[in-house]
Design brief:
By secondary structure, the chain is α/β, with parallel strands linked by helices. It is built from 11 helices and 9 strands. Helix 1 packs across helix 2, helix 9 runs antiparallel to helix 10 and helix 10 packs parallel to helix 11. The structure holds fe (ii) ion.
Length: 255
């Protein structure tokens, strides 16, 4: 499996404080069956964040540490990018903002409780310039939780959606779980990622969520969300996505 959203670099954001815990997270990810992780520290603006070169060096160092420790995990560089009006410029000038520096896919993080005005038009303009936004965990955003169908028109045009493993398993609460199941059922979620921050309270584990997703949408389709689609993302290749299913009444529960 491939985890495209993980706060695993030491002392860079709200992830692990020291390299020892980063290595422990790598070990945990590998033993869960994850073979590649994209290290995605938060990015707000060039001025408020670490030097991009430092992020890329830290990812390379952690990758080297995995080799040294015999951990079968590849670590790539990326970022968890806050939405801002400067985004088009940042995407063109800060290399690690697109996942694995391919210049194509990037994690797009909204504020927790709302979306920005005209976000749909903004995202479509990014798509038109060759960048594919992957909206991170809308099932945990208060506005999307109440308006999940707002994703249909943008997903139909090629915007992608990532849901969090711990939302599916219920650790972010019943509402986040229900919304994540709704998104899966309607082909509105394309990737499951850990958004891990530590070995304890937000661990890098995908297998439990994969098994829940398999119960809901079938094992083959569920596997695509943690293998085939993330693999194309890290390679910057185009992806044929299933068309989103038409909006309907909110459904709840697993079956
Ligand atoms: Fe994140």
């Amino acid at each position: 499996m491939i985890d495209i959203h993980c706060h695993i670099l030491p002392a860079i954001d709200d992830g692990p404080a020291a390299v020892e815990e980063s290595v422990e997270m790598c070990r945990m990810a590998a033993s869960d069956g994850i073979n590649t992780v994209v290290a995605t520290p938060h990015f707000n603006s060039v001025s408020s964040n670490d030097d991009p070169a430092r992020v890329m060096a830290a990812a390379a160092e952690l990758d080297a540490a995995c080799r040294r420790e015999g951990i079968p995990l590849k670590v790539l560089a990326g970022a968890d990018v806050s939405i801002s009006s400067e985004l088009p410029t940042y995407l063109k000038t800060v290399p690690h903002l697109t996942i694995n520096r391919t210049g194509r896919y990037f994690l797009a993080e909204f504020p927790h409780n709302h979306v920005l005005p005209n976000w749909e038009r903004f995202f479509l303009s990014l798509l038109a310039s060759g960048f594919v936004p992957i909206i991170t965990h809308p099932e945990r955003n208060a506005w999307f939780m109440n308006n999940p169908d707002a994703l249909f028109p943008v997903v139909a045009k090629g915007v992608m959606v990532q849901i969090t493993a711990m939302s599916l398993t219920g650790e972010f609460g019943e509402d986040a779980q229900e919304v994540s199941l709704y998104l899966l059922r309607h082909n509105l979620a394309h990737v499951i990622a850990t958004d891990a921050h530590s070995v304890t309270y937000r661990p890098p584990v995908l297998s439990e969520a994969l098994s829940l997703a398999a119960d809901l949408i079938g094992p083959e389709k569920a596997r695509r969300l943690v293998e085939d689609i993330p693999s194309a993302i890290i390679e910057g290749k185009p992806i044929a996505l299933d068309a989103p299913l038409s909006p309907g009444a909110r459904k709840t529960g697993l079956f």
